[in-house]
Amino acid sequence: MKIWVDADACPTVIKEILFRAAERAKIETILVANHFIKTPPSKFISFIQVSAGFDVADDEIVKRSAKHDLVITADIPLAAEAVEKGCLALNPRGELYTESNIRQRLNMRDFMDTLRSSGIQTGGAPPISQADRQAFANNLDQLLAKLNKAH
């Protein structure tokens, strides 16, 4: 099992939580981005830089991930592909994407896209809060504990 991080938009504080978890759980964690991201020296943490372009990092994660891997992303289409492939997908706010909720998330995302393209200002997501960080860390720990028991 590996952790794949859609690192282009992943908040620094979430990456730091992931770095600590990778060391503690001794789990391979790979950040994928189209710009350089500094990672701590670790045999468990690596970085793959992909070329710039729409969804290039997402496509790389989908191509390289395997069933039971964990994908960290706020990108709902990437999460949908990961879930479809049999991966777990967790967003930086600690919400787990599942087969039962991903369709609804995709529909809402498409609806908001339609509103934005028609000129309606929808605003963005609020900044990551302390509660979001805690939810992410807690859910990450729970997932890693479950996966350790299973393997």
Overview of this protein structure:
- The chain is of the alpha/beta class and 151 residues long.
- The chain has a single domain, classed as Rossmann fold (3-Layer(aba) Sandwich), CATH 3.40.50.
- It has helices at 12-25, 56-64, 76-85, 102-117, 130-150, and strands spanning 3-6, 29-33, 45-49, 70-72, 88-90, 96-97.
- The chain has a six-stranded mixed sheet with strand order 3-2-1-4-5-6, with helices on both faces.
- A hairpin with a 5-residue loop joins strand 5 (88-90) and strand 6.
- Helix 1 (12-25) runs parallel beside helix 5 (130-150), helix 2 runs parallel beside helix 3 and helix 3 (76-85) packs antiparallel against helix 4.
- The chain is globular and about 45 Å long.
- The N and C termini lie close together (9 Å).
- The mean pLDDT is 89.
